[in-house]
Amino acid sequence: MDTSFPREDYLPTPSHKREPCPDAGTSLLPRDHLIWSIFNTIYMNFCCLGFVALAFSVKARDRKVAGDVEAARHFSSKARCYNGLATAGSVVLPLLLAALVITGVIHLSKLAQESVGFFTYQFGGSDEEDK
User: Fold this and answer.
1) Nearest Cα residue to 82 out of 105, 54, 101
2) Does the predicted TM-score (pTM) go above 0.85?
3) Distance (Å, rounded) from C-alpha 48 to C-alpha 102?
4) CA nearest to 57, candidates 81, 74, 75
5) What angle do helix axes 34-42 and 49-66 make, rounded to 10 degrees?
6) What pLDDT digit, counting tens, does each position of 79-107 carry?
7) Is 67 helix (H, G, I), strand (E, B) or coil?
8) pLDDT for 24-61, tens place per residue?
9) How far are the Cα atoms of 2, 3, 4, 90 from residue 7, in angstroms, in the given order?
10) What's the rounded Cα separation, in Å, for the pair 78 and 32?
11) Burial of 49 (0-12, 13-18, 19+ CB in 10 A)
């Protein structure tokens, strides 16, 4: 009989109690907005603001892992600001462009309707008027 493995009788029973984190109530760790920054960098990189936000998000995550909460908050705030600007710019500019195209089409259609009379005008006149 092989007795190199511990038997079930001697295995320690796992404790089901969770100990509270000593740092839980004193200060909350800042969010690094990394997913939002990646999304802005890949899909909506307006004026490279998504890339700048990604750089600040990575800095915030590094500072959070290192334990420097104040620097992590500072970089997280900048990342959130750049992400907001990138998202707003990427949503507002296409809407503005669509509005300009629609108003341009409406203006051109009105202009075309008004100039129909000009293009149907006969400059030479008819043959009966010449006689």
Assistant:
1) 54
2) no
3) 28
4) 75
5) 160
6) 999 999 999 998 998 999 999 999 999 99
7) coil
8) 444 688 898 999 999 999 987 878 999 999 999 999 99
9) 11, 8, 9, 63
10) 10
11) buried
The rounded distance, in Å, linking the Cα atoms of 61 and 31 is 8
Tell me the H-state helices in 7-126. Answer: 34-42, 49-66, 69-114, 116-120
Handedness of CA 21, 64, 71, 81 (dihedral sign): negative
The owner of tokens 């008027």 is 129
Place of tokens 């190199």: 4
Top pLDDT among 68 and 19 is at 68
CB 46 within 8 A of CB 93: yes
Per-residue pLDDT, 1: 57
How far is residue 1's CA from residue 24's CA, in Å, rounded to a whole number? 50
Instruction: For residue 90, give both structure tokens.
Output: 């990427």
